[in-house]
Amino acid sequence: MNRHTREPGPGTVVVVTGASSGIGRAAAAAFAARGARLVLTARSAGVLAQVAARCAEAHPRAEAVAVTADVTDFAATERVARTAVDRFGRIDVWVNAAGVGVLGRLDRVPPADVRRLWETNVLGAFHGARAALPVMRRQGGGTLIDVSSVLGGAVVAPYMGAYAASKAALATLDEVLRQELRLSGDTGVAVCTILPAGVDTPFFRHAANHTGRRLRSLPAVATPQRVARAVVRAAARPRRRVHVGPGSRLLPWAHALAPETVRSLVRWRTGRVYLDAPGTAPITRGVLYEPSDATASVAGGRHAGARTAVRRVAGCTAALASAAAVRTATRHLPSRGRSSPHHRRS
Q1: Which SUPFAM superfamilies match (predicted)?
Q2: Digitized pLDDT (tens) for each residue of the chain, 346 residues in all
Q3: What region, left, alpha or beta, does residue 119 occupy, with left being phi > 0 and alpha being psi -120 to 50 degrees?
Q4: Structure pTM?
Q5: Considering 159, 163, 274, 289, which one is annotated as catalytic?
Q6: What is the largest CA-CA distance in the chain?
Q7: How far apart (Å, rounded) are the C-alpha atoms in residues 71 and 55?
Q8: Beta strands at 13-17 and 93-96: parallel, antiparallel or unpaired
Q9: How many CA atoms lie less than 13 Å away from 146 in the CB half-sphere?
Q10: Is 163 annotated as catalytic?
Q11: DSSP labels, 162-197
């Protein structure tokens, strides 16, 4: 595959972690629709087998193998890489999409839960890179894609500290990998960091919640399919960082321009809008220690597709209204160089 000139298609070998749910599952479907040969991994064996079967049916030349594994276990992650090489002979694209979340004040979140989150979000991605990169270096090329978050950059939110820090660490690891690959002369291997804003996945349903507060609403969110399309494009034409979704570029830009204003707004909306009152939700550990199984799904039920359509219609309407207002104002302006009636009579 010439990843710089065309999208992944039949014959492309793709490994996706976290493939049973959310962005990983959407990415697996997107690659399968193009006829890729897939090795899919997650902890939920039954759901993963179903996802693999659907991927294999998505295109006449698509193939999919399910390998149940926990990315926090390096030996298990190496087994995933060996399966790809033994079955298909190479690894063209490796997508680290496995991730978990923890909500809560940093001084009240159990250290064990934070450790588990970091083992999945950071060490799991490191394990994926450690398993995939030697294969890609031997074959002379490949693309490693890590799903990070805008929350791993300048913009942070209360009660998301452990998660945001893990995503920031992942973005830093990617920067280091790029430098090291340049130094070693492995210019055919690309590392791409995907930076979504809010995404309509089961993330909050699966996250450990130590706030005692129910999730009331979310900001504008993108569909998992939109992020999956960005992943496929990154596999075809790798870039250092790819921003996806509403606010993914605007928020960092606004934060750089007026940091305290953005911090205040995010803090206020998180505390007053996005979360309900204290005592409205039980303390849970989500899927930190157990597979998602029956709760695994692509979307999180936030109707991101409909909300995106509404935003686009509203944006187009506003643009058309603005254009009409400008045209009306222009028609009522006197023509340049035309004399007024008073001048003509004098």
Answers
A1: NAD(P)-binding Rossmann-fold domains
A2: 444 445 788 999 999 999 999 999 999 999 999 999 999 999 999 999 999 999 999 999 999 999 999 999 999 999 999 999 999 999 999 999 999 999 999 999 999 999 999 999 999 999 999 999 999 999 999 999 999 999 876 688 899 999 999 999 999 999 999 999 999 999 999 999 999 988 998 898 999 999 999 988 777 789 999 999 999 999 999 999 999 987 888 888 888 899 899 899 989 999 989 899 999 999 999 999 999 888 888 886 764 443 443 333 333 333 333 344 445 544 555 554 444 444 444 3
A3: alpha
A4: 0.84
A5: 163
A6: 96
A7: 21
A8: parallel
A9: 35
A10: yes
A11: HHHHHHHHHHHHHHHHHHHHHHTT-TTEEEEEEEES
Residue pointed to by tokens 């507060």: 213
Residues in the chain: 346
Query: Which of 18, 138, 1 is CA-nearest to residue 77?
Result: 18
The C-alpha atoms of residue 188 and residue 1 are separated, in whole angstroms, by 12
298: closest CA among 198, 201, 207? 201
Look-up of token digits 């509403």: 246
Residue 265, phi then psi, degrees to nearest 5? -65, -45
Nearest to 87 by CA among 54, 60, 52: 52
Q: Considering only CA atoms, which of 334, 318, 97, 53 is closest in space to residue 224? A: 97
Which structure tokens are listed for 299?
């979307």
- 292-309 burial code (b ≥16 CB/10 A, e <16): beeebbbbbebebeebbe
Class assignment of domain 13-299?
Answer: alpha beta
- DSSP, collapsed to helix, strand or coil, labels residue 146 as strand
How does DSSP classify residue 151?
G
Query: Nearest Cα to 181, choosing from 261, 106, 240, 115?
Result: 240
C-alpha–C-alpha distance, residues 173 and 196, integer Å: 17
DSSP state of 237: S
Spans of all domains in the chain: 13-299, 303-330
CA distance 109 to 182: 39
The residue whose two tokens read 């976290």 is: 18
Give one DSSP letter per residue of 65-116, joined into a string: EEEE--TT-HHHHHHHHHHHHHHHS--SEEEE-----EES-TTTS-HHHHHH
Structure tokens at 152: 């791993």
